[in-house]
Amino acid sequence: MDAFKALTTALSIILAGVVWNSGNAKAANILLSAIYGEGSHFLAMSAIGRSLVDRGHNVTFLISSAYEDRAKDPRFSMFSFEMFAHPVPLEEVREMFHGFNKYAFEDADGQFLKLMDMLMDRFVNDCRAVITDEKLMHRLEVVDAIVMDVAWACGFYIQEMLKQNSETPKKLAMVAVAATPTWSGFLEASGSGFNHAYQPESTTAYSNRMTFVQRLKNVLIYAFYRVWVEYTSAPPFREMGKSVGLPNSIHPVFTISNFDLFLLSVDGSSDFPMPTSPNLIRVGGLTVTPPTFLSQELEEFVQSSGEHGVVVFSLGTYLASITVIRPDLVRMFSDAFAKLPQKVIWQLKELPDYDLPPNVKTMPWLPQNDLLGHPKTRAFMYQGGNNGFQEASYHGVPVVVIPLHGDQYDVAARIEARGMGKKIDKQDLSTELIYETLTEVINNPSYTTVAKKVSAINKDQPMRAPERAAFWIEHVIKFGGDYMRSPANELNFFQYHLIDVIAFLIAVFVAVLLVLFFTLRFCLRLCCRMIGWGGPTKSKKD
Question: Cα separation of 174 and 159, whole Å?
Answer without folding.
Answer: 9
